[in-house]
Amino acid sequence: MNSAKTNCCCQRQLHLRTPVYCVDLNDESLRKKLKRGTGGSEEAELPPLSSEQESARDVKYSWKRLRAEGLNCDYTRIFSKSEADDIFLQLEKVLEYFSGEQTKVQVCGKWYDIPRRQVTYGDLGLTYTYSGVTLVPKPWLPVLEKIRDRVTQATGHTFNFVLINRYKDGSDHIGEHRDDEKELEPLSPIASVSFGACRDFVFRHCDTRGRSATRHLEPVKLLLVHGSLLMLNYPTNVYWYHSLPVRKKVLAPRVNLTFRNVLPPPKN
Ligand SMILES: O=C(O)CCC(=O)C(=O)O
Ligand SMILES: [Mn+2]
């Protein structure tokens, strides 16, 4: 039996985002792929940064390294308090969140409202599909370019797309999921920038979830503060699910931007 396919999305709660399957490391063909660096393993070689990326990377930030088996993340503050306050106000003013069909997700054939607001911006011609909804990005806005360019300055990585989530208070949340949509460039990091209320963020290893858990590994938890950047580097999204849990005591809004690299649609 392929243990990778035992985790039916119907067993998951509504707030989970995408059908989820764990990587089966007993699968010989997958092991071979991992050795070639095309799949998800902490042993797989990361492509080196190009010389432009290396020289673009700004060393002035003090990074906290988060490491666990298959988890590779880096966290820092990239905006001062006054910059972050100013950007947050601008985001609240200019962002136009999706409405209607684009505010719903499909879970096991049923449609539900997502427990937060959402919108995407990015390069012309890209699309991004998750949980049965295809999102077409709106054109970049100056404030989004400013945030994106600061991330590039800090990390050396460029991005062509951003998914934005607004949590009006601690009752809005995002359930456990991996960002593993097929449109995402497989080895590219995801850069998560947060403004507004501080919220807990939790990683959970795929082998430790639910009734079919095969082992025990502690979840990795962190607090995402106003003006911070969390880099989710490969292979984090292969092995670790992440969530922003409900926190009823949080009364203030938060806006999170996840900068991504979306592959261009295939030419027919
Ligand atoms: O709000 C956050 O910090 C996480 C958002 C997220 O995981 C996503 O948009 O995929
Ligand atoms: Mn995510």
UniProtKB/TrEMBL annotation:
PROSITE patterns reported in the protein's UniProt record: FE2OG_OXY
Note the subunit structure: Interacts with PCNA homotrimer; this interaction is enhanced during the S-phase of the cell cycle. Interacts with nucleolar proteins NCL, UBTF and NPM1. Interacts with XRCC5-XRCC6 heterodimer.
Its catalytic activity? a methylated nucleobase within DNA + 2-oxoglutarate + O2 = a nucleobase within DNA + formaldehyde + succinate + CO2; an N(1)-methyl-2'-deoxyadenosine in double-stranded DNA + 2-oxoglutarate + O2 = a 2'-deoxyadenosine in double-stranded DNA + formaldehyde + succinate + CO2 + H(+); a 3,N(4)-etheno-2'-deoxycytidine in single-stranded DNA + 2-oxoglutarate + O2 + H2O = a 2'-deoxycytidine in single-stranded DNA + glyoxal + succinate + CO2; a 1,N(6)-etheno-2'-deoxyadenosine in double-stranded DNA + 2-oxoglutarate + O2 + H2O = a 2'-deoxyadenosine in double-stranded DNA + glyoxal + succinate + CO2
Name the residues that bind substrate: Y128, T129, Y130, D180
* Keyword terms of this UniProt record: Dioxygenase, DNA damage, DNA repair, Iron, Magnesium, Metal-binding, Nucleus, Oxidoreductase
Q: Please state which protein family the record places this protein in.
A: Belongs to the alkB family.
Recorded GO cellular component terms are: nucleolus; nucleoplasm
EC class, as a word, reads oxidoreductase
**Stored InterPro entries:** AlkB-like, AlkB-like_sf, ALKBH2, Oxoglu/Fe-dep_dioxygenase_dom
- Report the subcellular localization: Nucleus, Nucleolus; Nucleus, Nucleoplasm
Q: Does the keyword Isomerase apply?
A: no
The species is: Scyliorhinus torazame (Cloudy catshark)
Q: What is this protein called?
A: DNA oxidative demethylase ALKBH2
Main location class: nucleus
Region feature (Disordered): 34-53
The UniProt record gives the binding positions of 2-oxoglutarate as N165, Y167, H177, H242, R254, T258, R260
> Lineage in the entry?
Eukaryota, Metazoa, Chordata, Craniata, Vertebrata
Q: Name one GO biological process term.
A: DNA alkylation repair
- Named cofactor requirement(s): Fe(2+)
A molecular function annotated in GO for this UniProt entry is: broad specificity oxidative DNA demethylase activity
